[in-house]
Write a structure and sequence with these properties.
Elements (H helix, E strand, L loop, with lengths): L3 H9 L4 H24 L2 H18 L9 H23 L4 H10 L11 H11 L3 H12 L4 H8 L3 H19 L3
Length: 180
């Protein structure tokens, strides 16, 4: 386990920034990829967002104040970058975010990187019916098993609001999955 304040100091120091950043990539790359992928759904988009996230982290590390954990700060950037990509793509295609998400879900089976079966595809379709914030909360809790405390830090909201949001999302998904 690394000492976070020491690690942050290494990330901020011109002498150790490159090596510390490579370490940061190793620590978070895969976990962040899957977090982003659950939001944007498409492999290529997830790769782009992941790259943008790390570029932003690299360029902004000096502005990191330490008010939250480094992990939470990076996840917040990744989440915001994911939402920005969805909004930008939906706007470019002149459709709503919901319509964009539905198109992404429908193209999942054609995605060579999607390894899910029919049940996983149906779950993804159910998640796509949720409002964006509920999608993110559900994914973070269900797939990533994040604690509400960490999610509250990442999403900058209260634990109570997140618990309510997750509960509502889970009920909607259950209703969707049992509607056939």
């Amino acid at each position: 386990m690394i000492d976070e304040s020491e690690f942050i100091a290494r990330l901020k120091s011109p002498l150790t920034k490159e090596a510390a950043f490579r370490e940061l990539l190793k620590l978070y790359k895969e976990r962040l990829y899957w977090h982003i992928r659950k939001i944007v759904l498409n492999h290529d988009d997830a790769d782009d967002v992941l790259q943008n996230t790390f570029i932003k982290v690299y360029r902004s590390i000096d502005k990191f104040k330490g008010d939250s954990k480094l992990f939470s700060w990076i996840y917040r950037i990744a989440t915001n970058e994911s939402i920005t990509l969805i909004n930008k793509n939906a706007k470019r295609q002149q459709i709503t975010n919901e319509e964009y998400q539905n198109k992404a879900i429908n193209s999942l089976t054609a995605d060579i990187y999607f390894e899910g079966d029919d049940i996983q595809l149906k779950l993804q379709k159910a998640i796509a019916t949720l409002p964006q914030k509920q999608q993110i909360v559900f994914n973070m809790r269900y797939f990533e098993d994040l604690k509400y405390k960490d999610m509250a830090e990442i999403l900058e909201t209260s634990e109570g609001a997140l618990k309510a949001s997750y509960h509502i999302a889970a009920k909607k998904i259950e209703a969707f999955l049992t509607s056939d």
